[in-house]
């Protein structure tokens, strides 16, 4: 580019191109970075009560603090500043931000990220999630921990209700008066929970696989009743079911051991029912 100075001489002015001074970034890396929000944004999206990510609708208090839709009805005042909540007022800006982000799973060791609508569902079945004690319902045990330490907890705290190995023999006591039985089984480096009950003159028993849902179909079990002399036997088998499935639905569908009470009485003595249980890894089956 050429112009003239005050003396009439030609003057050359240089044009500086700054494109080569700008660090060009990889588009794919940018997209990946933008998928996961910063810690400050995630912190702003945490409900101050339940500490879960807030999903629309997000309520506000008089001072502008947010709270999730699940905790809001349970509290008369804002837990942060103790001021009243605004009726029919939502944090629309935060809702908009929340809807456009991908969220990392909260479970330690999990690297998955999901849209807001899916992250809570994933965390409920995530292999890295903290598990309740398999016997929590019957024993009121409040323990929670990783899948890898369930065995240690159960053996130390509930040893009489644990079996180690794929084959076991057990006895159900006081069958006619006991509503339900639970037994934790450790086999193939996995955790299983057998649940048995007498209901409406029928005996039910099923084996639950505790762990990733997709692994439940890799195992099956056989439940055997036998008279004392072994002249009469009943053998019933089925697939293990996932801990994400409801036991009542499993029993109702017949995906379990289901026998009339009149039948199992033939194998009982003194209101006790002895039985054998055997677990199989389907990959090891020869059929």
H/E element order: EEHHEEEHEEHEHEHEEEEEEEEHEHE
Task: Report the radius of gyration as a whole number of Å.
Answer: 31 Å
Q: The biggest beta sheet, please? A: 6 strands, mixed
End-to-end separation in angstroms reads 84 Å
Task: Please count the beta strands (DSSP E, at least 2 residues each).
Answer: 19
Residue stretches low in confidence (pLDDT < 50, at least 5 long) are 10-34
Helical segment count: 8
Structural class: alpha+beta
Round the mean pLDDT to the nearest integer and report it: 84
Report the helical percentage.
10-25%
Binned strand content: 25-35%
Question: How would you sum up the global shape?
Answer: elongated
Question: What does this 3D model show about the protein?
Answer:
With 287 residues, the chain is α+β, with helices and mostly antiparallel strands. It has eight helices and 19 strands. Strands 10, 12, 13, 14, 17 and 18 form a six-stranded mixed sheet that branches. A four-stranded antiparallel sheet has the order 11-19-15-16, with no helix packed on it. It is elongated and about 75 Å long. The chain starts with a strand and ends in a 6-residue tail after the last strand.
Task: Fill in the keyword field for this structure.
287 residues; 4-stranded antiparallel beta sheet
């Amino acid at each position: 580019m050429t112009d003239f100075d005050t003396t009439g001489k030609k003057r050359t002015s240089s044009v500086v191109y700054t494109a080569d001074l700008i660090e060009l970034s990889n588009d794919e890396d940018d997209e990946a970075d933008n998928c996961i929000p910063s810690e400050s944004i995630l912190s702003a999206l945490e409900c101050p009560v339940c500490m879960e990510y807030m999903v629309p609708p997000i309520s506000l208090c008089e001072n502008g603090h947010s709270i999730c839709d699940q905790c809001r009805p349970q509290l008369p005042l804002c837990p942060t500043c103790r001021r009243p909540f605004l009726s029919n007022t939502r944090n629309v800006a935060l809702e908009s931000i929340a809807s456009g982000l991908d969220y990392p799973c909260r479970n330690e060791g999990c690297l998955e990220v999901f849209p807001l609508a899916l992250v809570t569902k994933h965390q409920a079945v995530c292999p890295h999630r903290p598990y309740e004690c398999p016997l929590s319902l019957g024993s009121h045990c409040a323990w929670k921990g990783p899948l890898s330490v369930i065995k240690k907890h159960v053996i130390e705290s509930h040893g009489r209700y644990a079996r180690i190995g794929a084959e076991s023999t057990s006895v159900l006591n006081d069958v006619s008066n006991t509503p339900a039985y639970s037994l934790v089984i450790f086999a193939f480096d996995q955790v299983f929970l057998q649940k048995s009950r007498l209901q409406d003159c029928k005996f039910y028993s099923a084996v639950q696989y505790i762990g990733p849902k997709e692994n439940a179909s890799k195992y099956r079990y056989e439940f055997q009743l036998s008279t004392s002399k072994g002249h009469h036997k009943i053998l019933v088998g089925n697939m293990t079911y996932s801990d994400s499935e409801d036991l009542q639905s499993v029993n109702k569908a017949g995906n379990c051991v289901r026998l009339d009470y009149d039948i199992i009485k033939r194998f009982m003595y003194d209101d006790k029912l002895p039985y054998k249980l055997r677990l199989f890894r389907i990959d090891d089956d020869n059929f």
